[in-house]
Design goal:
Length: 177
Amino acid sequence: MKSENRNKLTIALFVIYMLLLTGVILFKLPFFSSEISDGIRVINLIPFQGSFDDSGTIDFREIRGNILIFIPLGIYICMLKSKWPFMKKVLPIVALTLAFEAIQFIFAIGRSDITDVLDNTLGGVIGIGIYALLFKIFKNRTVKVVNILALVVTVFVVLYFAYLFYLSHFVMRRLHP
């Protein structure tokens, strides 16, 4: 694959990822929650305060999900801006996370939480680390290898979202009129 075509594929996959990320964070996709806007504005500035369940133990599902969903962002930043130093790569991850939290607060669509900022940033940093490791293994073929993997994963994720959309908008409505 030529370098120019590889870059176009990277950009296209990045745009799809950003659309999916925005959908998941701001619109709670693929769950299509009816509680997208409950009108309540909440800011939690105490790390991991909202991560405890009723028994007082940490529920790692949301933490893990927030970390995992931002790993691709770190990888894409490395692919698109390979010459940037580490801290310059981290900056857009933090900025995007803060933007998502601010939008959630302004439009009352979810809770603004410092834990999300920490988890999302950690996910992006892990993505940067994963890309660095892949680069040590694949050298100049890294972008090509990651693009192929990202294309496969993106197709599956889009199909999964489409399936859940179908279930929630067509199947479930017939079952519960």
